[in-house]
Amino acid sequence: MRIKVTVKDNNLVPGLAGIPAAESAISYIDGQVGVLEYRGLPIEVLAEKSTFEEVCWLLLYGKLPTQAELDTFKQQLVEQRAVPQKVFDLLAALPADGHPMAALSIGYNALGMTSAPCNVLDSAARQLAYAQLIASTPVLIAAHSRLRQGKKVVPTDPKLDIAADFLWMLNGEKPADLVARVLDVALILHADHTMNASTFTGRVVASTEADPYAVCAAAVGSLSGPLHGGANERVLQQLEKIGSAAAVPAWLDKQLADKGKIMGFGHRVYKTKDPRATCIQGLVREMFAQHGTTPIYDTALKLEECVLERLGDKGIHPNVDFFSGIVYQKMGIPTDVFTPIFAIARVAGWLAHWDEQMQDNRLFRPSQIFVGLRGVTYTPIAER
Ligand code: CMC
After folding, report:
1. C-alpha of residue 14 to centroid of ligand 1, in Å
2. For ligand 1, is residue 227 a contact (CB within 6 Å)?
3. CB-ligand 1 contact for 266 (6 Å cutoff)
4. Are 198 and 273 within one domain?
5. Ligand 1 within 6 A of CB of 347
């Protein structure tokens, strides 16, 4: 006998849109007017005046650091850049054409396997993990990028801050000051963003009292998808496929007729232009003023204009991923390393949320609306 269960009281909210999953004091968004603040400080101010290291401290400890606190934190970050050789050996053994986000997830798990156990209920132990995970993320990404090309790992340079050191480890060349500063600002802009999919994933994993390596590995998986952090590399592929500003209107007509998504546009929370996209556009202009423009930017501007004409009324505007790939491409960074750069920044937010979750933890265990069958009679395999 089969009983089909029907749902009488259907209060499911797809994608949990608008449903609070936690109380958080880390970042704040007003999606109607395009405001993003970290610990009450507007993102535009931080992009202009701060550094990624300072922003990490701000997110993790709730206030701007004193000079002495920042110096100690930066020293800790430098010390924690040491990644065990066994982890590099593992990265070297991965398929060369595999995605760097998968390698990062493996790297986090391997780091966990080679590190002392972390008592996640102890706030001092959590603080030690902050520095290790923030410092090792760029090392893992740069090392994997070189190893997959058959090149040697470039050792970290303790005199360089995270952004400049990442470019050094990736390319084996010291970056120009402007290039390092532009990447530093991009990291600031991506460091936290309320209850996004990867942060939510991290908090769910944290709520089981799993270690921070498992939290970050799971969050990386979530970030990799094209609707989340993976959009930045898709944006560049999309602009390259369109080919020129003149080709935009016809491409957009077809894309919308086929019900395709325009990558780099739309956001669950912002119904106006993402303030991070505006900041990154400023970085694009700075890069172009010093290093020359690229035709792909004209294609992007035309696409923005046409999408706003067609979809602006629905609240669909450029998001953070729309211009970031153009900047990274200008820096000579491979397209599939764009989303890992997002992770270099967002690991700070994941860890701040991990800490917040552990301060008042309750296991995430939502309910479901059951819509399946019950009371099914088992049919032996020979009779099916
Ligand atoms: N292109 C075309 N139509 C869109 C887009 C888009 N980029 N975004 C939303 N829509 C339409 C969608 O088709 C739907 O239309 P209808 O109501 O007619 O069915 C409506 O807008 C609502 O879309 P949704 O997907 O239900 O809205 P959401 O709040 O779940 O979407 C989103 C958020 C980011 C998943 C979506 O805007 C999207 O897929 N954008 C493209 C991918 C992208 O750029 N992602 C990066 C997000 S920002 C960085 C980050 O947080 O990681």
Report:
1. 14
2. yes
3. yes
4. no
5. no
Condensed to tens digits (0 to 9), the pLDDT of residues 297-312 reads: 999 999 999 999 999 9
Task: Assign residue 46 the CATH number of its domain.
Answer: 1.10.580.10
Q: Please tell me whether residues 176 and 73 are part of one structural domain.
A: yes
Return d(Cα 72, Cα 66) in angstroms, integer: 10
66 and 209 share one domain = yes
Q: How many domains does the chain have?
A: 2
User: Do 66 and 180 lie in a common domain?
Assistant: yes
Token representation of residue 167: 């470019």
d(C-alpha 71, C-alpha 77), whole Å: 10
Q: Which of 29, 199, 227 to mutate to test the pocket of ligand 1 (most atoms within 8 A of CB)?
A: 227
**Which CA distances in Å does 59 have to 65, 71, 373?**
10, 16, 46
Q: Yes or no: say if 144 and 104 are a contact pair by the CB < 8 Å rule.
A: yes
User: Based on the domain organization, do 45 and 157 belong to the same domain?
Assistant: yes
Do 210 and 345 lie in one domain? The reply is yes
Write out pLDDT tens, residues 227-262: 999 999 999 999 999 999 999 999 999 999 999 999
Q: Which segment of 30-34, 61-65, 179-183, 284-288 scores lowest on mean pLDDT?
A: 284-288
Do 147 and 89 lie in a common domain? yes
Instruction: Please pick, among 192, 211, 321, 355, the residue that the annotation labels catalytic.
Output: 321
DSSP string, 128-158: HHHHHHHHHHHHHHHHHHHHTTTPPPPPP-T
Q: Which residues contact 369 (CB under 8 A, 6 or more apart)?
A: 7, 10, 11, 12
Distances (CA, A) of 312 to 266, 296, 297, 304, 375: 10, 22, 20, 10, 50
Is 0.85 surpassed by the pTM of this model? yes
